[in-house]
UniProtKB/TrEMBL annotation:
It comes from the Bacteria. This is Uncharacterized protein.
Length: 471
């Protein structure tokens, strides 16, 4: 029995050695392929040097170290380690550690990333100089940590093309980037967290600094066709900007662009603009007028605060659909605006409610089956301050200013009809403080079209049942 066990042991050792020899042949071939692919990746037009290219004996992993590519244009690409894990033809992961793009003349680092992990990439090394079919460019996932980017570089211009950062000069850091299901024309998910930067020449924003806690995009499609892009959702949190033309912050922006579940829209929370700081940074000759506007909007605090929700939903009702909009804008210490819409409609053939929300042009071809709209304006101090400012600018008392406004409203009402007059006189009541809320309700006829209103805009009021109330 002891001899039998000894024989089995020796046989196992022999089989293991054979397996390792066969595996070593495969991984050695993979090492050669990785080196060849890296050299082909950079091609001509520069100088490439590679350190050790090695294969793991017990794991399917190939590593190239100390990759340095000197481009003829003067840029240098450095990658400390390039690791391919799994089957070389269908890798589980490709990892790049210590990536840097440098200006070889100034030794300035234009961009760096501590670690990049490509999950389930379609290639171990993407052949940039070869023409690939669209389905040959894909990533199952993406993870990037520790990004530092100089904005005043060609890379920065390409990454932020057509944004305020395109011509910026400064530095941006990003703690991490995470992505899922990335292809040539779509992104399943992309999340960027821990963004901070300081720059000059940020388009209309001017020069200054900014931070962003996170930005998450989901189901971004149509990237290969201009004008066909669609976005299922966007969520932005904690944006702060302190620049020469803009000082403010935004707590949250939530955009739901996927109406296939019957609802969508946009929420904006905690938008704050430091008007007082912005006025200090404005040219001296503009400050007096800007302060007047700021005092009216903010009651002298110099800080404008706004929340908004523009929401929509739809329901199927047999042969027609009911589209509902529930929107609200709240400017703190100034006003609150509510807009509600309830429209039963018969959509054109082949148009779904989700299509309708995505493309407002559908309204011109839809049949409106009655419905109602409600607009409510609540004063939270703005109109009283408008009356004070208007009276001061006209050199009269507030009572005289209100009576002048009432006379003008009555005159305009004679031109545009009693419904328009009722709205204008309601605004005058807000000015004089005899009312705090103005509400306008519109009831549509049993069957109509947007086109009929567009061809005769002055006759719209005659076709609607309009009711105006103040409280």
């Amino acid at each position: 029995m002891q001899a039998f066990n000894s024989s089995v042991t020796r046989l196992g050792q022999l089989l293991t050695c054979v397996a390792l020899m066969g595996g070593s042949t495969t991984v050695a071939a993979d090492a050669e392929r990785l080196e060849a692919d890296l050299r082909a990746l950079f091609g001509a037009g520069g100088n490439l040097s590679l350190g050790e290219v090695s294969s793991g004996m017990l794991r399917s992993r190939v590593t190239a170290e100390e990759i340095v590519f000197e481009a003829e244009e003067g840029e240098r690409l450095v990658i400390d380690r390039y690791i391919v894990s799994g089957d070389y033809d269908a890798p589980d992961e490709v990892t790049l550690e210590g990536l840097r793009i440098e200006d070889s003349l100034t030794e300035l680092t234009l961009m760096s990333a501590e670690r990049i992990v490509l999950g389930e990439p379609s290639h171990a090394v993407f052949p940039l100089h070869a023409e690939l079919a669209p389905d040959e460019v894909r990533l199952g996932s993406l993870a990037i940590d520790g990004i530092v980017l100089e904005l005043a570089s060609e890379l920065g211009e390409e990454l932020f093309f057509d944004t305020p950062l395109q011509d910026g000069q400064g530095r941006m850091t990003i703690e991490r980037v995470r992505g899922e299901s990335l292809t040539h024309d779509a992104i399943g998910m992309l999340e960027i967290t821990g963004v901070a930067g300081a720059a000059e020449n940020l388009d209309e924003i001017g020069s200054g600094s900014f931070t962003l806690a996170s930005l998450r995009l989901e189901e971004l499609t149509g990237l290969d066709t201009e004008g066909e892009e669609t976005l299922a959702s966007l969520l932005l949190r904690d944006l702060d900007v302190d620049a020469s033309e803009l000082v403010g912050s935004l707590a949250m922006l939530d955009v739901d662009g996927d109406f296939n579940d019957g609802k969508g829209g946009m929420r904006l929370e905690g938008l704050q603009l430091d008007l007082a700081r912005m006025i200090e940074l404005a040219p001296e000759e503009e400050r007096t007028q800007l302060r007047m506007v700021s005092n009216v909007l903010t009651d002298g605090s110099g800080e404008l605060r706004l929340d908004a929700a523009l929401l929509g939903s739809w329901q199927e009702k047999g042969e027609h659909s009911v589209l509902v909009s529930d929107s609200q804008i709240d400017v703190q210490d100034a006003l609150r605006l509510l807009f509600d819409v309830n429209l039963p409609v018969r959509l054109p053939a082949g148009v779904t409610p989700a299509d309708a929300f995505a493309d407002p042009d559908w309204l011109e071809r839809a049949t409106l089956l009655g419905g109602d709209m409600r607009l409510s304006l609540t004063d939270a101090g703005l109109f009283a301050r408008l009356a004070t400012l208007g009276a001061a600018m006209e050199g009269m008392t507030e009572a005289q200013y209100v009576e002048q406004a009432r006379t003008q409203a009555q005159g305009l009402g004679m031109m545009f009809g009693p419904e328009a007059q009722a709205v204008l006189l309601g605004l005058v009541e807000l000015l004089e403080g005899s009312a705090e809320e103005l509400e306008v309700r519109l009831n549509l006829p049993a069957e109509s079209s947007v086109a009929s209103y567009q061809t005769d805009p002055l006759g719209v009021v005659d076709k609607l049942n309009v009711k105006v109330e103040t409280r």
